[in-house]
Amino acid sequence: MMALTVLELDLEPGVCAGPFVVGMPLRDALGVVQRELAGAVPSAEVKYRNPRAVAHTDELLVDMPHNGVLLRFARGDQRLRAAEVYKVHRVRLRYAGAVFSCSDAVPVDASLADAAAPTFVNIYRRLGPSYPGDFSQDFSSYTLRYPGLAFVFRIPEQHRAIYRAQATAGQREHPIEFPDGTSAVACRVIVSSPSQEQPQAPPPRMGYWEPVEATVGTGIAFPARGNAVLHLGMSAQDAVAVLGAPSGVFFKEEDKMRLLLSQQQPQQPRLQQSQQPRQQQYQDGTGGDFFFYNYFAQGIDVLFGNVGGVATVRKIVLHTNHPHHRDFNTYAKCNFHLRLRPDIAVGPDNTWAEIAAVYGGREAAGRPIVNGSGSSDNPFGPTFFYGFPHVIYEVLQNGDLVSVCLF
């Protein structure tokens, strides 16, 4: 087994901790872990507080337990809020080119060991003065804050009474040195946006979390692109002019959703259906060449059917990048708004209960089609397809929305 290298992170307050940039999408951050840090990060775990209601949890977490690094992502747009190092002794940290914390796995010259220790004295000298921090009596810790950067120091038991008394008296002095001449050592380092609101860093690329206005039976529009519209029935060339070149192309031999689509269309006798002209078969989803254009970074798939030698848009699929789905991290989360009524729109964080209520409740929605392929292929269990005229909702067992398909 290949030995792991030490994870090194350059800290830039309010901007980044190494390759983890404040505001970057969850999908990009996991890509960095998998591709760029594979030699230093043996595992990463995606966590959230309530697995039965992910749509209503505050944030998604990516934990690298071996390295002691935790990434916090906003639940809504899945962008990085903060990068936290909670095992400071396992990571090599630098600020402005100088090392202020060395991993235990890296031998350090004895003459440099004190200067490279993440003590309050060394950090204060390197970063300069700051406003008084906060002493937590519950955790016996002191937090030193700079814009976009925070250090948490554990106060040894023998010195806690001093800072409890100061906190009670309203005094807020830095614990630069303890009475015995020692200095507190940082146990956590946090890089975040200087603002307490959503990350202020610009999107890392064009198109991420771009508003998408969806209309049943019509298609999708992009207000940020001058209301460019991707219509159902549009040619592949025109679709590329709107969306750009696809990230991938997937060819399929059959349309496995045609049974669900048939529920929305009048049934015809089997003999009559087989005698339809070839072009009509394409339009009904009963034959022909089908292929997907995958736009992973936008959270969109477009299915084309080849009609009379012309590939036209047959379906548009909008993904929510749900962590309980087998396609998690394949697609970015699409920021769509599907207008169902003039005053009601469905978004990626709506639950099935909320969507079904628009159609008259769960009973009015009818029985779903179950999509399951076994626990070995999908450990999270099956998903359920609910079909309505020109739209299909894919839903998890807990009621969270996975995707919306317009056709």
Summary of the model, kept short:
This protein has helices at 26-35, 110-116, 120-127, 160-168, 236-243, 258-262, 270-274, 278-284, 352-358, 362-365; strands at 8-12, 16-17, 20-21, 45-47, 59-64, 69-74, 80-85, 92-95, 98-101, 134-136, 141-146, 149-154, 186-192, 212-215, 219-222, 228-231, 248-252, 290-295, 300-307, 310-319, 336-341, 344-346, 369-371, 383-388, 391-395, 401-406. By secondary structure, the protein is an alpha+beta fold.
Can you characterise this structure?
The protein has 407 residues and is of the alpha+beta class. It folds into 2 domains: 8-192; 212-406, no CATH class. The chain contains 10 helices and 26 strands. It has an 8-stranded antiparallel β-sheet. The protein has an 8-stranded antiparallel β-sheet with strand order 17-18-19-20-26-25-24-23, sandwiched between helices. Strands 3-2-1-8-9 form a 5-stranded mixed β-sheet, with helices on one face. The longest helix has 10 residues, at 26-35. The protein is elongated, with a radius of gyration of 27 Å.
Secondary structure elements and pairings:
Blueprint: E1 8-12, E2 16-17, E3 20-21, H1 26-35, E4 45-47, E5 59-64, E6 69-74, E7 80-85, E8 92-95, E9 98-101, H2 110-116, H3 120-127, E10 134-136, E11 141-146, E12 149-154, H4 160-168, E13 186-192, E14 212-215, E15 219-222, E16 228-231, H5 236-243, E17 248-252, H6 258-262, H7 270-274, H8 278-284, E18 290-295, E19 300-307, E20 310-319, E21 336-341, E22 344-346, H9 352-358, H10 362-365, E23 369-371, E24 383-388, E25 391-395, E26 401-406
Parallel strand pairs: 1-8, 14-21
Antiparallel strand pairs: 1-2, 2-3, 4-5, 5-6, 6-7, 7-13, 8-9, 10-11, 11-12, 12-13, 14-15, 15-16, 17-18, 18-19, 19-20, 20-26, 21-22, 23-24, 24-25, 25-26
